[in-house]
Please model this.
Amino acid sequence: MTLLVELEQIARGQNEAGKVTLQDVLRAQIEQERLRTEISNLEDSRNPLLAQLKGALGLRADEPNPPVPAEFPSTPLDLAPDQLMVTALERNPRLRQMEAEVRMAESGIRLAHQSRLPDYNVGVEADVKASPVMWRPTLGITLPIWRDKIAAEIGSAQATKQAAQARLSAEEIQLAVEFADKSFMYREATRNLRLLTEALLPKARQSLEVARVSYSSGRTDFINLQEAQRALLEFELAEVDARTRRELALAEISLLILGQAPSGSPTIAPSTRSDAAASRSRK
Model:
């Protein structure tokens, strides 16, 4: 909006000098009105977004609004890409739970196999009422005669283990697929962000400055100047979108690896991150 006000002033100066018609001034004013409406819509969109944030935090409508971030800092990625997948397989809470189920099934198999062996009981009985006290040795044995029942228990335990292993393998495959998808999103957003910040935005600013000087000297028309201004605005919005996508990808990668939100999250207290992530993982 500030830039368009400056362009309108340039157009007025050119019109007063008789170099351009009033149409250029009107174009600048029309573009300002369009942007003014868009800015009003964006400001108004804060209310439903804030209501969603309060709902996510479990706050009632009559409670004070939570603080919202005033800046958009970028989250650093400390791990190398080839280490991320290994870390995800080691720390993902869903996989660790399923590994525990496999170990529990293995214990069930060992217990079922033990039921095939006879049980021996050796002891001593004493009759304290007799004088002298009478001592009698005892020997007992339980024979596993229900072979079909024992075989069924062993088969059931083995099936439970196989099912747990299948779930673990399927979860590892699903984790690898999700991780590959989120990693691609992160790399794509990073490349787009680098392209915008290092190449497109500097060139767009330079193009706008060249168009402004050319328009002031009468070597180009207002349409070209306006297009240069729109191109710069579109690239700036694209930069914000790339940063947003990158942060979302990093947050989802963090959840896949640790079941936790990234450090420094403004809306999740450090003491409740693990519990909230574990609850989401169980769901």
The chain has a mean pLDDT of 77.
